[in-house]
């Protein structure tokens, strides 16, 4: 079975939140096998991302002639040129002379979905912002299968995230008896508060799912996420191989259709700037716990990604949409997933 970590986590429920204990040899080998497969896709991933960025730049220029030039926004050094390759996702070993780093190929391993996923009610849509305030952010997510290095068209990318002040739709308040709870000091939940219960069942903001297009890409419109106690700023993602649209615009997914559960991050330097902007700077924990840096994430996901058996990069590459940051951002990421694998939702809390 592909991810023994999953069963490992399952065995520890409901306490488990982190993965701080040493990994077993088998877990390390599973991750390494995936990573080896991912390296093989590195040139394909680089081409894939570069082509999307070029397309994006054209789109931005066409709608607003007042924006900076193409070269300013997307300098050569920012991406690897696709060169002569006509076939975008041609699968070839890492042999071409490129600046590809070992973490160029984003392989996001399967990590916890956390307590804020809703198994029903995520609408099928690309604009998930609803009426939330915050910095306009486009997320351009590409999905490839590490078994083939080919893009995965028509898989459902399901994302959810916190609002600018760190709340999830449906979960506005802590349990009354935990109103003054302090973050856990040690142990697996170090730095975290208990999950806020779901009390607003109709809320759907900053949640949504949409299938990848024929190039294996999906683009969401959202706001930059805010932070909450104990977690680095992140966006959650699930990938479903099959799903069924429901009459109310949401979807259901059959057993065995879940191919991936992951989380994406942003550079801390960028987080630091956005911390200063309205409404991010009104975050109620700003002066108490503050924002958790990527390396201090309670769930260790960022840290794990940079460990010897990790070496993947779950961080969006960001571009400014206009001359000033307040006009918004576009983030690009390509995920390598194992489309042959399937999972169960494992956080039932
Ligand atoms: C990347 O990592 C793999 C696996 O650890 C290794 O075999 C390869 O030599 C590394 N490549 C580079 C360019 O560092
Ligand atoms: C849509 O319908 C499903 C299935 O009946 C239900 O579980 C879900 O809560 C509904 N979502 C919304 C937003 O109405
Ligand atoms: C985020 O959501 C919470 C809970 O619904 C709400 O109280 C808060 O005002 C929202 N933040 C912003 C910036 O709107
Ligand atoms: C993908 O998952 C399948 C099924 O679990 C497994 O046989 C295969 O080895 C995995 N591929 C990689 C690259 O890990």
TrEMBL record:
Gene3D superfamilies: Aromatic compound dioxygenase
Protein's recorded name: Aromatic compound dioxygenase
Lineage of producing organism: Eukaryota, Fungi, Dikarya, Basidiomycota, Agaricomycotina
Domain of life: Eukaryota
Signal peptide: 1-18
Entries under InterPro entries matching the protein: Intradiol_dOase_core
Keywords of the record: Signal
Molecular function GO terms recorded: iron ion binding; oxidoreductase activity, acting on single donors with incorporation of molecular oxygen, incorporation of two atoms of oxygen
